[in-house]
């Protein structure tokens, strides 16, 4: 009787062990997917692409496409508009730390082409537009260095604010090709080509929508 009881107890123990092992298998199979889901929900997950909208000086409003090849580096390329004409801009941002709030160093290069003689003539001939030919014939190239911080919000949104300085070169081409009536409307010094280099403070704020 004792032997039968011992065998019965051993059978029950083995049955319980097999049942526990069978119950553990589904969770083991689900573990990788759970890890994938955890990675998807991780706020620190790298989203390599993005659309960046910002406003500041000297370039005005900007819309750029960004690419983040590494967690510490983000590249961007896009267009700007200063209220008079459009331009182009490229840059990189260094993000040395992780977290919801992180410092950022941004370096940028930008350029806006001045209006040519024909465009300026059309602009001066349109009496419905405000008289600002002097501003339209000014082009500029700039290099900026900015320090700031970024705040990551839910929904892959990042807000940023930056400040620093820009080295700018403003220039105006000669307007000798203007037709005489339009050339007479300019001051003598405005008709001559010129260049001016200066360093000035710069600041901007904006947001970035990341995806990918």
UniProtKB/TrEMBL annotation:
Superkingdom of origin organism: Bacteria
Signal peptide: 1-21
UniProtKB keywords: Signal
Protein name: Outer membrane protein beta-barrel domain-containing protein
Protein species of origin: Pyxidicoccus parkwayensis
Lineage: Bacteria, Pseudomonadati, Myxococcota, Myxococcia, Myxococcales
